[in-house]
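REVIEWER CHECKLIST
Item 1: Sequence provided? yes
Item 2: Single chain? yes
Item 3: Sequence as submitted:
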Amino acid sequence: MQNSANQTAKNKGIYLLPNLFTTAGLFSGFYAVISSMNGHFESAAIAIFVAMVCDGLDGRVARLTNTQSDFGAEYDSMADMVSFGMAPAILAYNWALNDLGKIGWMAAFIYCAAAALRLARFNTQVGSADKRFFQGLASPAAAAVIAGSIWSGSTYGIEPTKISYLVAFITALIGLLMVSNFKYHSFKDVDWKGKVNFLVMILVVAVFAIISVEPAIILCIGFYLYALSGPFITLKNVDRIKVGHIVGDDPSDETSFDDKK
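Item 4: Structure as written out by the authors:
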């Protein structure tokens, strides 16, 4: 009984270190909004990627330092809504969608609302979902597709007014992928603490070197491929596609995929 009471008190505590990373991610998302409003689209896109790094660190730091808490989980979710829901939607709207009228703000709203629904669904499935996969495109990856596209467009001088309808389509589509039932690898089953071959470290260095050459376009392509991997994984693992594989109530583990013979 004493251990249970200690665990409850621990879960209700507020720990500084992981919440510092969460706050840094929240600040990056807020900075992205302000930058996009001032026309600094490249800086706004980069800020969203910084928020992604902070989001990836806060949870891992909390687990490594045994400072996980209910407050931290809720705070992280709220910060994610700003950094990966509001910020990409406003960035896309300010960059290319504001001249489309209702079509523009509707596309941005679809993305924003989908991010909120995606985060709410994720929070209700903690502890019961298959940790190997995300149900629907994760909001940080979705934000990276939007931010990567705008970063690349700003870097290479693409006129946003010429591709406004394409940006609207991509923004809405990425939003719909977040609330889909497509399965995306979460990479949570990777043993990050395990030993690896020296060749693996060389490959890691090579990846960072390649990204540093043209970070905007390489990150953009990488996250587009990840966004497409969900439908590919689903179609690969079913004999007959059903509505439940794409959208609707989450199929159970027994019916989510019909194993191919």
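Item 5: Key structural point noted by reviewer: Confidence is low (pLDDT under 50) at residues 1-9, 252-261.
Item 6: Recommendation: ____
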